[in-house]
Amino acid sequence: MTSRILFALACTLPLTACIDSSPSDELDSNDATEGDASKADAPGGTFTYYFVQADLRTCASPVCGGVFYRLANATQTRCFDGKKADKCYAASSDLAGLGLGEVGMGKVTDALDHGEVLMRATIGYKTWTGAGQFAKLNAKEAWLAQGPNEVAGPLMKIEDSGVRCFTYPCPSLREKKLNSAITMDIAELQWNQSGASDRLVGTALDKMHTDGLIVSGYRTTVTGPAGDAKARSVTQFFFKVTDEAAPAQCYVGGCSGQVCSDRPDVITTCEWRPEYACYHTATCEVQADGQCGWTMTSELQACLANP
């Protein structure tokens, strides 16, 4: 807890003289490598990460009905037949390796049916009688996107570097590029482009110290009393799926109806802010992180930006 407090203080001190937020990144190269299957279980490892999506075509199995997969941080993926393509097909998938119960598995299967899920997985094969061998995806971890944006910029696993400083910028975070051996220290994550609420950003920083945090985004340069340092502007971020139970119901509370929580009796002070009116037509429901929150639609984002 102490390290999180120190980190938060370091990242909120108003000492930054300049932030270069141009969308360029010396690490944004499509040099990802798939690695071997043994790397899929290495603690804190970064290899064998794929984006996976259900195949919703209606032709007969095993030709249809499996999953499509593509290597994270790469423009092409080597498929089971040895050829490279934008995405590959696996006729079957084994999700047992995720180690999830009903709650967690429900999150994963729902996400697969509606879009891509970031998974740590290995690619094996299964023999189908009369049809031959087809690729089989063996899942190890599942990560769900939390923000409203598309993935932009390279994907990085973020960790606390353990470095503590008395001035700013301080290389207190370590970023490890997925499907790569590249590791570098950075001074901060910048969340203003992520579309995330303050509550969700707080959850993300807590996840970084527990289940883990993966972000996409572009490197920037921050300047302060200690000189220049690299940072990353977050465009999208991912939480690892667990079996944490979701609230049974979400409630709107607070004096101005501005709070969305799992408690029906939340009371706040009665100061009025123009942005509170935006929540009157917003939806309070369980979010992708399993907690109650306002669903951040484009209409709500626009209203909050100009209440």
Report on the structure:
This protein is an alpha+beta fold and 307 residues long. It has two domains: 1-245, no CATH class; 251-305, no CATH class. The chain is 14% helix and 34% strand. The chain contains four helices and 19 strands. It has helices spanning 2-12, 102-114, 198-209, 298-305, and strands at 18-20, 49-54, 67-71, 77-78, 84-85, 88-90, 92-94, 117-128, 132-145, 155-160, 173-177, 183-186, 189-190, 213-224, 227-240, 251-253, 259-261, 284-286, 292-294. The strands form four sheets. Strands 1, 2, 3, 6, 7, 8, 9, 10, 11, 12, 13, 14 and 15 form a 13-stranded mixed β-sheet that branches. A two-stranded antiparallel ribbon has the order 4-5. A two-stranded antiparallel ribbon has the order 16-17. Strand 18 and strand 19 (292-294) form a beta hairpin. The longest helix has 13 residues, at 102-114. The two termini are 35 Å apart. The model is unreliable at 1-22 (pLDDT under 50).
Helix vs. strand class: alpha+beta
Q: What is the end-to-end distance?
A: 35 Å
Query: Quaternary status of these chains?
Result: single chain
Number of β-strand runs? 19
The best one-word shape is: globular
Amount of helix: 10-25%
Strand content is 25-35%
What is the average per-residue confidence, as pLDDT, rounded to a whole number?
86
- Model regions low in confidence, pLDDT < 50 over at least 5 residues: 1-22
Radius of gyration equals 21 Å
- The ordered H/E elements are HEEEEEEEHEEEEEEHEEEEEEH
Biggest sheet record: 13 strands, mixed
Give the tally of structural domains. Answer: 2
Give me the number of helical elements: 4
